[in-house]
């Protein structure tokens, strides 16, 4: 029996996934493509496309990416891949960065390799 992920997602996540699904649907309609044509070009099934357009979070990530790519929206995710986009992570990296280099070891014996 399949688990319903809708029970385990936050309202914010549900709202955002529905908005993203609506954007994919709007892009498909703007390109005057049927669900059948769009899903074939995105290499997903029409039923998976319907679930994506509804914002179903249980659809695997690859299917979402394929739909975003076919809709021409995949580029919107590019800023997320930049480390600077993660403000908290960037501040932690800066705080944990070494302040100055370590002192190099002084060799006692000039003939020791």
Question: In the CATH scheme, what's the topology name of the domain at 11-74?
Answer: 434 Repressor (Amino-terminal Domain)
- Structural class from helices and strands? mainly alpha
The CATH superfamily of the domain at 11-74 is known as: lambda repressor-like DNA-binding domains
- Helix run count: 5
Query: What is the share of helical residues?
Result: 40-55%
**Cα separation of the termini:** 67 Å
The biggest beta sheet reads: none
Taken from the alpha-carbon principal axes, the silhouette is elongated
Q: What do you see in this structure?
A:
The protein is an all-alpha fold and 113 residues long. The protein has a domain at 11-74: 434 Repressor (Amino-terminal Domain), CATH 1.10.260. Helices cover 50% and strands 0% of the residues. The chain has five helices and no strands. The longest helix is centred in the first third of the chain and has 20 residues, at 11-30. It is elongated. The N and C termini lie far apart (67 Å). The model has no long low-confidence stretch (mean pLDDT 86). Residues 88-113 are annotated as: Disordered. Residues 95-105 have a biased composition (Basic residues). InterPro entries: Cro/C1-type_HTH, Lambda_DNA-bd_dom_sf. This is Helix-turn-helix domain-containing protein. GO terms for molecular function: DNA binding.
Q: Can you tag this structure with a few keywords?
A:
single chain, 113 residues, mainly alpha, 434 Repressor (Amino-terminal Domain), 50% helix, elongated, Lambda_DNA-bd_dom_sf, Helix-turn-helix domain-containing protein, Cro/C1-type_HTH, DNA binding
